[in-house]
Amino acid sequence: MSGVPAAPGLLGAAWMIARKDLAIEFRTRSAFLSALVLSLLSIVIFYFAWDPTAIGAADLAPGVLWVTFTFSGLLGMHRSFGVESHDGAMDALLTAPVPRQSIFLGKALANLVFVLGVQAVALPAVALFYNLPVGPAFGALALLMLLASIGLVAVGTMFAGMTANTRLAELLLPVLAMPFFVPIVMPAAKTTALLLAGRPIGEAFAWLRILLAFDLVFAYVCMLVFPLTLDD
What range does the domain containing 148 cover? Predict the structure, then answer.
């Protein structure tokens, strides 16, 4: 019938889901504030446990950054499915006339915005506490964080959907996702160390290529596998 609107396509449905998740988080801000507090608390704890005579700030900061980003990001990814598990909203999404891959893309896009928001606050905090010259390498660091966040979000979103309806979702999500985070966090931390040490970005190209390769593989595979994780 001409009066019936057409169902949105893959990208259109993904954008609608992402907007819905971001609108919910913007109203409540519970997950973002929790992740932000965890990030800042981790940075402060690492700072007071740091012995500057034993290890330099540029050597310690990459580990602090990526440990903080990884665990704070898991909070948001768990929350992205948790908000819909109480009122049956996920069942409505599954019965909607949209590809299931659009659910993954929409959730991943909202999670990516969430993670980048946490990073936008945590990176200046680390630079301030550890007195790091982030300015000259800011552009390269921003690109690096975007690339690493894509990989982390792709893996985290898939496992968050898989564990959303389990009783131990808070425990299972990090246990399942962490092994897959390693090949993303490792080149990200290595590249961050090079940039903070003032090395030319050309020296980090090898690690960036590895990171980009993992991003492409993980994002594609997770999008294909995600619909299977929603089947009972």
Answer: 10-229
- Amino acid (one-letter) located at 229: T
* Number of domains comprising the chain: 1
Answer yes or no: are the C-beta atoms of 101 and 22 closer than 8 Å.
no
CA 197 remoteness from chain centre: 25
Total length of the chain: 232
Over its length of 232 residues, how does the chain's per-residue pLDDT go in tens digits? 444 455 567 778 888 888 888 887 788 777 788 888 888 898 899 888 888 878 888 888 888 889 888 888 888 787 777 666 666 666 666 666 677 788 889 889 999 998 998 888 888 888 888 888 777 778 888 888 999 999 999 999 888 888 877 777 778 888 888 889 988 999 998 898 888 877 877 888 888 888 999 989 989 999 888 888 776 5
- pTM: predicted TM-score of the whole model, two decimal places: 0.86
